[in-house]
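Support case: zinc ion complex. Customer-provided input:
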Amino acid sequence: MNLLQWLYDILFPLPAVCPVCMKRQKKLMVCDDCRAEAMRIRSMHGQCQCCHSFGVYSEHCHSCRDWPCYLSGNIAVWPYQGNWQQAILDFKFHNMPWLADALANELAVMLPREYDILVPVPLHKKRLQERGYNQSALLAGALAVKTGIPVKDCMCRVRNTPHQTGMNREQRLHNLHGAFAVKSNTDIKGKRVIVVDDVFTTGTTIRQCAETLYKAGAVEILGATLASGRGHF
Ligand SMILES: [Zn+2]
Ligand SMILES: [Zn+2]
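Agent response - structure generated as follows:
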Protein backbone atom coordinates (compact mmCIF):
# COMPACT_ATOMS: atom_id res chain seq x y z
CA MET A 1 0.00 0.00 0.00
CA ASN A 2 1.46 3.35 -0.88
CA LEU A 3 1.74 6.17 1.61
CA LEU A 4 -0.90 8.37 -0.01
CA GLN A 5 -3.46 5.56 0.02
CA TRP A 6 -2.61 4.80 3.66
CA LEU A 7 -3.05 8.44 4.60
CA TYR A 8 -6.29 8.70 2.64
CA ASP A 9 -7.70 5.62 4.39
CA ILE A 10 -6.90 7.12 7.78
CA LEU A 11 -8.41 10.51 6.93
CA PHE A 12 -11.49 9.12 5.17
CA PRO A 13 -12.25 5.70 6.66
CA LEU A 14 -15.06 3.68 5.10
CA PRO A 15 -18.09 3.29 7.37
CA ALA A 16 -17.75 0.03 9.33
CA VAL A 17 -21.30 -1.18 8.66
CA CYS A 18 -23.20 -3.83 6.74
CA PRO A 19 -24.33 -2.06 3.53
CA VAL A 20 -27.59 -4.05 3.55
CA CYS A 21 -28.93 -3.62 7.11
CA MET A 22 -26.54 -0.83 8.21
CA LYS A 23 -25.67 -2.61 11.48
CA ARG A 24 -22.21 -1.87 12.82
CA GLN A 25 -19.46 -4.29 11.80
CA LYS A 26 -15.70 -4.57 12.30
CA LYS A 27 -15.29 -3.26 8.75
CA LEU A 28 -17.47 -2.49 5.72
CA MET A 29 -18.92 -5.91 4.89
CA VAL A 30 -22.22 -7.74 4.54
CA CYS A 31 -23.07 -9.11 8.01
CA ASP A 32 -23.63 -12.76 8.91
CA ASP A 33 -27.36 -12.18 9.48
CA CYS A 34 -27.92 -10.70 6.01
CA ARG A 35 -25.83 -13.43 4.42
CA ALA A 36 -27.81 -16.11 6.27
CA GLU A 37 -31.09 -14.48 5.23
CA ALA A 38 -30.01 -14.48 1.57
CA MET A 39 -29.07 -18.16 1.85
CA ARG A 40 -32.36 -18.96 3.53
CA ILE A 41 -34.31 -17.25 0.74
CA ARG A 42 -32.26 -19.08 -1.89
CA SER A 43 -33.00 -22.46 -0.34
CA MET A 44 -36.64 -21.77 0.63
CA HIS A 45 -37.85 -20.13 -2.58
CA GLY A 46 -37.32 -21.48 -6.04
CA GLN A 47 -35.05 -19.71 -8.50
CA CYS A 48 -35.34 -19.66 -12.28
CA GLN A 49 -32.52 -21.81 -13.64
CA CYS A 50 -31.79 -19.21 -16.34
CA CYS A 51 -32.03 -15.77 -14.78
CA HIS A 52 -31.91 -16.70 -11.06
CA SER A 53 -35.09 -14.78 -10.28
CA PHE A 54 -36.51 -15.81 -6.93
CA GLY A 55 -39.94 -17.32 -6.38
CA VAL A 56 -39.89 -19.39 -9.59
CA TYR A 57 -40.79 -23.03 -8.98
CA SER A 58 -40.63 -24.34 -12.54
CA GLU A 59 -37.34 -24.75 -14.37
CA HIS A 60 -37.73 -21.50 -16.32
CA CYS A 61 -39.67 -18.35 -15.52
CA HIS A 62 -42.11 -17.02 -18.10
CA SER A 63 -39.60 -14.61 -19.65
CA CYS A 64 -36.78 -17.13 -19.99
CA ARG A 65 -38.49 -19.60 -22.31
CA ASP A 66 -36.66 -18.27 -25.36
CA TRP A 67 -33.32 -18.19 -23.56
CA PRO A 68 -30.42 -18.01 -26.10
CA CYS A 69 -28.19 -21.09 -26.42
CA TYR A 70 -24.94 -19.13 -26.05
CA LEU A 71 -25.92 -17.70 -22.64
CA SER A 72 -25.24 -20.36 -20.00
CA GLY A 73 -27.32 -18.58 -17.39
CA ASN A 74 -27.23 -15.73 -14.94
CA ILE A 75 -25.87 -15.87 -11.40
CA ALA A 76 -27.65 -13.61 -8.89
CA VAL A 77 -27.09 -13.45 -5.14
CA TRP A 78 -30.09 -11.51 -3.93
CA PRO A 79 -33.71 -10.77 -4.80
CA TYR A 80 -34.00 -7.18 -6.00
CA GLN A 81 -36.13 -5.90 -3.15
CA GLY A 82 -36.01 -4.47 0.36
CA ASN A 83 -32.64 -3.67 1.89
CA TRP A 84 -30.78 -5.50 -0.85
CA GLN A 85 -32.31 -3.26 -3.48
CA GLN A 86 -31.49 -0.22 -1.36
CA ALA A 87 -27.82 -1.23 -1.05
CA ILE A 88 -27.56 -1.59 -4.84
CA LEU A 89 -29.32 1.75 -5.45
CA ASP A 90 -26.92 3.42 -2.99
CA PHE A 91 -23.98 1.89 -4.83
CA LYS A 92 -25.25 2.89 -8.24
CA PHE A 93 -26.99 6.23 -7.86
CA HIS A 94 -26.02 7.72 -4.50
CA ASN A 95 -22.34 8.19 -5.19
CA MET A 96 -21.09 5.28 -3.09
CA PRO A 97 -18.61 3.57 -5.44
CA TRP A 98 -16.71 2.34 -2.39
CA LEU A 99 -19.46 -0.25 -1.78
CA ALA A 100 -18.17 -2.29 -4.76
CA ASP A 101 -15.78 -4.45 -2.78
CA ALA A 102 -18.24 -5.46 -0.03
CA LEU A 103 -21.00 -6.22 -2.55
CA ALA A 104 -18.73 -8.11 -4.96
CA ASN A 105 -17.62 -10.31 -2.07
CA GLU A 106 -21.07 -11.90 -1.97
CA LEU A 107 -21.14 -12.57 -5.72
CA ALA A 108 -17.54 -13.83 -5.99
CA VAL A 109 -18.21 -16.98 -3.96
CA MET A 110 -20.93 -18.03 -6.41
CA LEU A 111 -18.93 -17.57 -9.62
CA PRO A 112 -17.52 -20.60 -11.43
CA ARG A 113 -13.78 -20.22 -12.07
CA GLU A 114 -13.56 -21.87 -15.51
CA TYR A 115 -14.04 -18.63 -17.44
CA ASP A 116 -11.38 -16.58 -19.24
CA ILE A 117 -12.48 -12.97 -18.78
CA LEU A 118 -14.88 -10.71 -16.88
CA VAL A 119 -16.54 -8.11 -19.08
CA PRO A 120 -18.43 -5.24 -17.42
CA VAL A 121 -21.61 -3.93 -19.06
CA PRO A 122 -20.41 -0.58 -20.45
CA LEU A 123 -21.93 2.83 -19.78
CA HIS A 124 -22.15 5.43 -22.51
CA LYS A 125 -19.50 8.15 -22.22
CA LYS A 126 -22.12 10.76 -21.35
CA ARG A 127 -23.63 8.63 -18.57
CA LEU A 128 -20.15 7.91 -17.24
CA GLN A 129 -19.45 11.64 -17.07
CA GLU A 130 -22.70 12.27 -15.19
CA ARG A 131 -22.24 9.45 -12.67
CA GLY A 132 -18.48 9.59 -12.42
CA TYR A 133 -18.07 5.82 -12.40
CA ASN A 134 -19.40 2.66 -14.02
CA GLN A 135 -20.77 0.48 -11.22
CA SER A 136 -20.43 -2.68 -13.34
CA ALA A 137 -16.75 -1.96 -14.04
CA LEU A 138 -16.12 -1.44 -10.31
CA LEU A 139 -17.84 -4.74 -9.53
CA ALA A 140 -15.86 -6.54 -12.24
CA GLY A 141 -12.61 -5.10 -10.86
CA ALA A 142 -13.43 -6.31 -7.34
CA LEU A 143 -14.51 -9.72 -8.67
CA ALA A 144 -11.22 -10.06 -10.57
CA VAL A 145 -9.23 -9.66 -7.36
CA LYS A 146 -11.35 -12.28 -5.59
CA THR A 147 -11.63 -14.86 -8.41
CA GLY A 148 -8.37 -14.42 -10.31
CA ILE A 149 -10.31 -14.05 -13.59
CA PRO A 150 -9.01 -10.92 -15.38
CA VAL A 151 -11.22 -8.03 -16.50
CA LYS A 152 -11.33 -7.20 -20.18
CA ASP A 153 -13.13 -3.92 -20.73
CA CYS A 154 -13.83 -4.84 -24.34
CA MET A 155 -17.35 -3.51 -24.89
CA CYS A 156 -18.67 -0.03 -25.53
CA ARG A 157 -22.05 1.59 -25.87
CA VAL A 158 -22.45 3.01 -29.33
CA ARG A 159 -25.75 4.70 -28.52
CA ASN A 160 -26.72 6.66 -25.42
CA THR A 161 -30.02 5.03 -24.48
CA PRO A 162 -32.66 6.41 -22.08
CA HIS A 163 -32.94 4.94 -18.56
CA GLN A 164 -34.84 1.65 -18.63
CA THR A 165 -36.68 2.02 -15.34
CA GLY A 166 -40.43 1.64 -15.94
CA MET A 167 -40.04 0.14 -19.42
CA ASN A 168 -41.46 -3.29 -20.22
CA ARG A 169 -39.47 -5.99 -21.95
CA GLU A 170 -40.42 -5.04 -25.50
CA GLN A 171 -39.60 -1.38 -24.86
CA ARG A 172 -36.26 -2.34 -23.33
CA LEU A 173 -35.44 -4.57 -26.28
CA HIS A 174 -36.19 -1.76 -28.69
CA ASN A 175 -34.28 0.71 -26.52
CA LEU A 176 -31.11 -1.41 -26.43
CA HIS A 177 -31.14 -2.83 -29.94
CA GLY A 178 -27.72 -2.21 -31.46
CA ALA A 179 -26.59 -0.26 -28.39
CA PHE A 180 -23.48 -2.36 -27.71
CA ALA A 181 -20.36 -3.19 -29.68
CA VAL A 182 -17.08 -4.98 -29.06
CA LYS A 183 -14.16 -2.53 -29.26
CA SER A 184 -12.35 -2.85 -32.56
CA ASN A 185 -8.91 -3.50 -31.07
CA THR A 186 -9.96 -6.51 -28.98
CA ASP A 187 -10.06 -10.17 -29.87
CA ILE A 188 -12.42 -12.35 -27.86
CA LYS A 189 -12.59 -15.29 -30.26
CA GLY A 190 -12.87 -18.57 -28.38
CA LYS A 191 -13.15 -16.84 -25.00
CA ARG A 192 -15.46 -17.91 -22.18
CA VAL A 193 -16.89 -14.69 -20.81
CA ILE A 194 -18.69 -13.60 -17.64
CA VAL A 195 -20.71 -10.42 -18.26
CA VAL A 196 -20.95 -8.38 -15.05
CA ASP A 197 -23.83 -6.04 -14.21
CA ASP A 198 -25.49 -4.81 -11.01
CA VAL A 199 -29.04 -6.10 -11.56
CA PHE A 200 -30.79 -8.52 -13.89
CA THR A 201 -34.28 -7.06 -14.44
CA THR A 202 -35.83 -8.28 -17.67
CA GLY A 203 -32.45 -9.55 -18.88
CA THR A 204 -32.44 -7.33 -21.94
CA THR A 205 -29.04 -5.80 -21.13
CA ILE A 206 -27.27 -9.09 -20.41
CA ARG A 207 -28.87 -10.68 -23.48
CA GLN A 208 -27.89 -7.84 -25.79
CA CYS A 209 -24.32 -7.90 -24.47
CA ALA A 210 -24.18 -11.70 -24.82
CA GLU A 211 -25.42 -11.53 -28.39
CA THR A 212 -22.80 -8.91 -29.24
CA LEU A 213 -20.02 -10.98 -27.63
CA TYR A 214 -21.23 -14.17 -29.30
CA LYS A 215 -21.23 -12.56 -32.73
CA ALA A 216 -17.66 -11.39 -32.04
CA GLY A 217 -16.56 -14.98 -31.38
CA ALA A 218 -17.05 -15.65 -27.64
CA VAL A 219 -17.91 -19.31 -27.16
CA GLU A 220 -19.61 -19.36 -23.79
CA ILE A 221 -21.20 -16.51 -21.89
CA LEU A 222 -22.53 -16.28 -18.34
CA GLY A 223 -24.23 -13.33 -16.66
CA ALA A 224 -23.26 -12.31 -13.10
CA THR A 225 -25.35 -9.79 -11.19
CA LEU A 226 -25.80 -8.85 -7.56
CA ALA A 227 -29.56 -9.25 -7.77
CA SER A 228 -32.25 -10.57 -10.04
CA GLY A 229 -35.48 -8.67 -10.10
CA ARG A 230 -38.09 -10.74 -11.80
CA GLY A 231 -40.49 -12.89 -9.80
CA HIS A 232 -41.61 -12.20 -6.25
CA PHE A 233 -42.40 -14.49 -3.39
ZN1 LIG B 1 -26.61 -6.87 7.49
ZN1 LIG C 1 -35.90 -16.60 -15.66
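Residues 32-44 form the longest helix (13 residues).

Case will auto-close in a few days if no follow-up is received.
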